[in-house]
């Protein structure tokens, strides 16, 4: 445990040092796959509506899910590496996935519209990106807590 001086500390997170490079790479790969799963859920349910009486109300719950999920993914990536650029890979995968899904109908092999052209979709992009980069930006502002 001397290799990990803050092990078990309730307010200090640190990168695991008892892992191989391959384990860290696969950790980031799996987190990136998780980010794509979160994107799929967010885009799939962005148009959720609830009915109260005879009135349909939009309920874009994914605007809360996406930043929370992406923040968890990025914070977990920061446990695998001190390199902020590498820790941001799952966030970049989420954003690039969103851009590809939004541009899908215009691509030569594209088809149906996957991301609706709505204010909710734009807010989803903003909220998901903000949630994903927040932990990285927090490390830039307070590097002493690494």
From TrEMBL:
Keywords linked to the UniProt accession: Membrane, Transmembrane, Transmembrane helix
Transmembrane segments: 25-46, 84-107, 119-141
Source organism superkingdom: Bacteria
Name this polypeptide is given: Uncharacterized protein
Organism of this sequence: Candidatus Corynebacterium gallistercoris
């Amino acid at each position: 445990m001397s290799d990990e001086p803050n092990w078990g500390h309730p307010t200090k997170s640190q990168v695991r040092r008892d892992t191989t490079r391959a384990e860290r790479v696969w950790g980031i790969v799996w987190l990136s796959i998780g980010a794509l799963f979160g994107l799929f859920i967010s885009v799939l349910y962005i148009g959720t509506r609830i009915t109260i009486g005879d009135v349909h109300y939009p309920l874009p719950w994914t605007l809360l899910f996406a930043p929370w999920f992406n923040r968890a993914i990025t914070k977990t990536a920061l446990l695998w590496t001190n390199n902020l650029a590498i820790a941001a890979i799952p966030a970049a995968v989420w954003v690039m996935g969103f851009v590809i899904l939004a541009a899908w109908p215009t691509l030569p092999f594209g088809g149906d519209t996957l991301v609706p052209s709505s204010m909710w979709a734009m807010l989803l992009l903003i909220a998901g990106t903000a949630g994903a980069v927040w932990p990285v930006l927090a490390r830039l502002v307070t590097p002493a807590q690494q």
